[in-house]
Protein: DUF4387 domain-containing protein
Amino acid sequence: MAETGPTTLGDLAFEVRSKNAGPFWVTMELFMRDARGYAVAADESFLDERTVARLYGVEESSIQMFRIPSLNVVKISFPRPVSQGSLHDRDIHSGQQHVPLALLPVPTD
Structure:
C-alpha cells in the first residue's frame, strides 16, 4: 500500500487560489469544503500572520487576514515583493503564489 503524506490545507479545500489585488498586493483565498475544514483554516493557533510571513517572506505586520465563517472562506492579502509588471516580476497575475499555502500540513488530531 502506498504511503500518503500529511493532510494539507489544499486537501481540505474546494479551492486555494491566489491573484493579484492591484499592482502592489497579492490576495489568497481558501475555499474550505465544510465547517470542519474551515475550523482548521481559521484557527489562529495554526494559520496566522506569523505563518503567512514565514511562508512568503513578508512582514508579519503587513498581512491582512479575513475569516468569513458564513462562507467557509479565509482570505489573506499582503504586499507583492515587487510591483506587478516590473522588470523583476516573475508572476504577473500572482496565479502561482497559492502553492505554499495549499501545501501547508494541517495539525493532526
Remarks:
- The longest strand covers residues 13-20.
